[in-house]
Design brief:
By secondary structure, this protein is α/β, with parallel strands linked by helices. It has three domains: about 120 residues, 2-Layer Sandwich (Nucleotidyltransferase, domain 5); about 140 residues; about 100 residues, no CATH class. Helix content is about 60%, strand content about 10%. The chain is built from 17 helices and seven strands. The strands form two sheets. Strands 3-2-1-4-5 form a five-stranded mixed β-sheet. Strands 6-7 form a two-stranded antiparallel ribbon. Helix 3 crosses helix 4. The longest helix is centred in the middle third of the chain and has 37 residues. The chain is globular, with a radius of gyration of 27 Å. The two termini are about 35 Å apart. This is IS110 family transposase. InterPro entries: Transp_IS110-like_N (IPR002525), Transpos_IS110 (IPR047650), Transposase_20 (IPR003346).
Amino acid sequence: MLLIGDDWAEDHHDVEVQDASGRKLASANLPEGVAGIAKLHELVARHGGADLDPAGVVVGIETDRGSWVQALIASGYQVFAINPRQVNRFKERYGSSGAKSDKGDAHALADMVRIDRDQLRPVAGDSEQAQAVKVVARAHQSLIWERTRTFQRLRSTLREYFPGALKAYADLALTSTDALELLIKAPSPATAAKLTRTQITTVLTRHRRHNRDAKAATIQSALREQQLGLPEPVTAAYAAAATAHARLIIALNEQIALMEEQVRAHFLAHPDAEIYLSMPGIGEITGARVLAEFGDDPTRYASAKARKNYAGTSPITRASGKSHTVQARYVRNNRLADALQTQAFAALRSPGARRYYDKQRAREAGYNPALRQLGNRLVGILHGDSAAQFRAG
């Protein structure tokens, strides 16, 4: 058996190769890409011999995705993705100074897969379709998060010089493209007050707004209300900043819509899509996010409890002396936790899910704990359905 610690960077990998006793056999700085993988295979062949089973090569690395990781898995190696925080804690065995080096990290990773391999989670052998769902689902969610951040910047800017715009476009939602187009057309209080009802209605009509005449009248009235002003040069500077944010949000809206189509297409092409869509509270986008984070490797979760622990929905117990508390898990996959929270909230329209939620509230559980308990129950149901399909298949 060979144990390999792989400390990766953008353009290279520092690796250390150990034998089963922990003896250092080699270390190297490998370039990213085909040439680097080839040199890694040469190291394995040199120190493992021609008859070494690829499954006897165990690699620890601080990521679970990318072409390098996929190349390691395709070679038949066991690959363990290790959280960088775990590596930092593990290195405290060597000393408490907090010193860091790439070679030191590679050594720690090799030691971890040699000593603590049973406590680590191997990179899942997800299908190509599941990997595709993961790529587009994460990209879609990241774009939405970026839009939210940009909107907060825009909102903060408007509060500084043009709070009337926040009131005027409240009914449209300031992240909507029609509200942003109106803001770009008239980004200052003075220019906004000159917008005619026809100009406003034209924009609303292009975006197929209902009750657009009434909405246009409300917007025009709000934009013409008096408000405190700033010096003209300062207002112009704020208006330029607001326009830049508005244009960026419009671009993000377009890309989010396009990526959403990709999420649906890849998710519906996956054979497990039917199982996910049969669950309460799951639509195509939420289903894609949950599938992306759980993966579809049938051997990844040994039990429903293991799946719940990974999801972060199951509680953790802290017991010491006379103290005994049960708390929520906060070290978890945040993308998965967000998707499951969305599912649990939407599932409240299901009679069965609602009864379970109400039961938790009757036990004096708060809103979020009760929703988390519901999510935990739904994860257990999902695990049972997935395992049943695997056994049937």
